[in-house]
Amino acid sequence: MLASRFEAMMPPHCRLLPYRAADGAWNMAADETLLASALGGLASFRLYGWSQPTLSLGYFQPSAASRVDPNLQPLAWVRRPTGGEALVHHYELTYALALPPGFPWQRRGESWLCHLHGILADALASFGILASTCGQNEERKLGNVLCFLHHTPGDLRIGDAKIAGSAQRKQRGALLQHGGVLLAASPHAPRLRGIRELTGSTLSPESLGHAIVEQLRYRTNWSLTPTEWSLQDRQHIEELVVTKYTHPAWNEKR
To answer: May I ask the CATH class of domain 16-100+109-251?
Structure first.
């Protein structure tokens, strides 16, 4: 009985996986692997980058979207397992959060999209950068392809520019949420201003990543434990890279 009470008082354990810059196929396979782990009861959080400028299409977007804009045509591209519109991953910090079903990870009525964006805003505030979220009745669509030209409730903005957005996928109650923080404008998406252009501040992925982890720990009271990928995870990632995320049957399915 005492052991059970002690365990109930312990903070929930969430894996903190190492930062890595990788190509689009590996990054999407890794995020899907986190969802599989969450189905097995294991929560995970990771921050990552991209080894080359990459366009990721939302699950429902037609593959022709990768060829609409001449600035986007040279980019490597991959289809995400989540919805939404296209993202140019270049000068950004990307995150992925995977949570098991139910309490204590997901509470009824709680929006993890808003919750995580609040954590990102607090992390930016620690550098003196003020960001706000779009209100429930705010929506603007400034383009038909890129996600950051579509402002929706909960998105994170500096002034009138969107600098962070997220997408989700649920599977049998488990949640995968991933998104990016735009650190600076990319020549492949010159309309999208990043934190550097909007504030004059140059943030490194490492410094912002550290602040995000600290805010996540503070806001959730989770035990965030630095952990390497397991052998099973690595095998699952490599399998998905070969059979799914580099395969035309997935990337060109629409």
So the answer is: alpha beta
